[in-house]
Amino acid sequence: MRATLRQAARATVHLFLAAVMAFGSYLFITVLLIAATGAVAVVGIWLLPETVLLIRRIAGAKRRLTADRTGREIPEAYRPITGPVRERVRTAVTDPGTLTDVRWLAAYYAYGWLTVLMLPLWPAGLVVDGVWSGLLGREALVLPLIVRLADLEARWSAALLRPAPKALLARRVEQLTATRADAVAAHGAELRRIERDLHDGAQARLVALSMRIGLAQRAYGADPETARKLLGDAQEQAEEALTELRHVVRGIHPPILTDRGLVGAVRALAAGSGLKVAVRADDLDDGPAEGPRAPAAVEAAAYFVIAEALTNAAKYSGCDRAEVVLARTRTGLGLRVRDEGCGGADESAGSGLLGMRRRVAALDGTVRVSSPVGGPTVIEVELPCVW
Length: 387
Known about the structure:
Blueprint (H helix, E strand, L loop, with lengths): L1 H39 L6 H24 L14 H10 L1 H16 L6 H18 L7 H19 L3 H55 L4 H29 L2 H17 L4 E7 L13 H22 L3 E8 L3 E8 L13 H9 L4 E5 L6 E8 L3
Parallel strand pairs: 1-2
Antiparallel strand pairs: 2-3, 3-5, 4-5
Helix pairs in contact: 1-2, 1-6, 2-3, 2-4, 2-6, 4-6, 5-6, 7-8, 7-11, 9-10, 10-11
């Protein structure tokens, strides 16, 4: 009986909030009609975009309320209403999301009154179920109807508020366009970095190496001792140039990923980070040849994200411990980096988070950052791939 009462109480809260929104929608219909009349008369056509924006806010609140009840998020797919009045009106009228919201608002005007049915169900349920379930120990009969009523209202709202496939496709195209632009920008920045590293590092050392070898050739006949010294310096220059080239290669694709696999590469990265890093790999193999591996681009993105996260933790967190979790998921590769530092990570402060997002977005992945002031900082990344 107590469990039934708790479920009925939660359903009542949902129905009460739904009733409040239904009453507000009845009032809003009047505003909507005024805006439509003004738009037809051209005098108040500027009211139309503002009315559509208000409808979006109401529908967004209803989506969140319904998601709390059903446990499933209802996506939004709207075109931004910006620009001059004519463009704003055109967008407001032609956006498929507007039709979806208006259709829901009209239907809600009809089925929103169902929420008041909970009022007679409560006294009847307390009497009937109090005897039938509380005293006789039978299954409750009336109070579960409140739960069913709340579930029915939530299912209808979810079905009506779900964006049309055309709107979802348009939003997906916009996301891919933005992702492509970020990928192109990141690629250009990476090429400039490689060019700068080669010009300032390896190329400069190779020029110095060539000069020392030329001086050694000239001095070999007259002063063999000086020639040997110059050749020794040239050998050091050659080793430094090789080191610079290895550094550039690691920035493109770390060879350790090929040699030891992602888990081994992350363990090596953690060992050299300067922090005490615990690495946990769920359902992933240590060896590069044991079982299926993620695509090279996915492994590289995961490696660089972890490297950036550990670098940020060492610089800014103020703690000496971190944790890295790698996991094979149903749709790809998941990773989480956590530190118990001071938190407060800000993407606009040049902490590398924006670069992470761009690298992950280029692979159609997602990044979630939680860094409240006082910590902890948790970075979660999902990279889609096929195993």
